[in-house]
């Protein structure tokens, strides 16, 4: 067959999780928590199933959940999206990202992606027949160079994708970045896809600069979030997209014939959690900050050097004091020989910077898991 996605193989997350399982390694690779979801969420889910909420949900998501998302968004970002016209519940952020791209990007058009970038953007762009245009972030700070973004824009550009807090680096966009994006997109037909799945995992008193805070941005933005990240349930695959009515209408055309609707019982459960237990997302930053700090303090006893982590649940480490291997080879070696699985950064790039010696470790783990990993990393 003439494959439509010739460059796509198995994701690095699956590859490293399998390798970790094969070799009995502590898995700090693929990003998922190894601790339980909040008990109240499990109760709410089972209750929803027992109450009979087991058939198709409305295509856009159940009204109670869209209302709860609207209220939360107003509470956190000072802007209340219209629950009926602007919020669509999706099968994870992944489906939302796919829909947003397919809703507005035509064959032959260009989408600007900032590298390193999460892996699901590029295949969705290519399946749309469009062209990903890669602009590198700073190799040390992972900050965008907005002049380079400006230079990458052509009459064919239809979308810019940003991700804050950023996977894999944890870097966050600041208010100045949001202003720069507004300046670049003003008077163009370019849409913004803002991947904000780690919106509540921000540290040191920083403020998450959602595109929803900025009127000029939100009028052209698809803002994507994931309940998997916020409620420790990546396996439930539920998320949502907030976009203005005209964009949501196009988004929903794709959603309607992609999955039609998403897992109904969990929608009831998340509606309850957002409404009745806002402390969960309010305290998520502090919860993960304690993990980040404990993990970094322990990593200081190894030969790995920690990079700053402003947000998200990944710690980047520079391993150049340990090894000269390239990152893919190092992560395989670390998994097989040293018993700790990590994710190399090169798969997140169209063109990895040469000589970069960084690996990504997920700290969304129980203390015991992190301690077991540290004991092994101390032997490097
Ligand atoms: N975007 C980013 C930056 C992510 O890290 C992830 C999850 N790894 C996703 C999107 C996908 O989220 P979901 O599991 O809700 O589809
Ligand atoms: N988002 C997760 C990560 O970055 C992986 C999700 C997946 O396995 N596709 O590790």
Ligand set: 4'-deoxy-4'-aminopyridoxal-5'-phosphate, glutamine
**Form type:** globular
The fraction of residues in strands falls at 5-15%
Percent helix range: 40-55%
Q: Return residue spans where pLDDT drops below 50 for at least 5 consecutive residues.
A: none
What is the CATH architecture annotation of the largest domain?
3-Layer(aba) Sandwich
Strand order of the largest sheet: 2-8-7-6-5-3-4
The tally of strands reads 13
State the end-to-end CA separation: 46 Å
Q: What is the count of distinct domains?
A: 2
Q: And the CATH topology of the largest domain?
A: Aspartate Aminotransferase, domain 2
Tell me, rounded to a whole number, the average pLDDT: 98
Structure notes:
The model has no long low-confidence stretch (mean pLDDT 98). The protein contains 15 helices and 13 strands. The chain has two domains: 12-30 and 283-377, Alpha-Beta Complex (Aspartate Aminotransferase, domain 1), CATH 3.90.1150.10; 39-277, 3-Layer(aba) Sandwich (Aspartate Aminotransferase, domain 2). Strand 9 and strand 10 form a beta hairpin. Helix 3 (63-77) runs parallel beside helix 11 and helix 13 packs parallel to helix 15. The strands form three sheets. A seven-stranded mixed beta sheet has the order 2-8-7-6-5-3-4, with helices on both faces. It is globular. It has 380 residues and is of the alpha/beta class. The chain is 41% helix and 15% strand. The N and C termini lie far apart (46 Å). The chain binds 4'-deoxy-4'-aminopyridoxal-5'-phosphate and glutamine. The site of 4'-deoxy-4'-aminopyridoxal-5'-phosphate has 14 residues, from helix 4. The site of 4'-deoxy-4'-aminopyridoxal-5'-phosphate (PMP) has 14 residues, from helix 4.
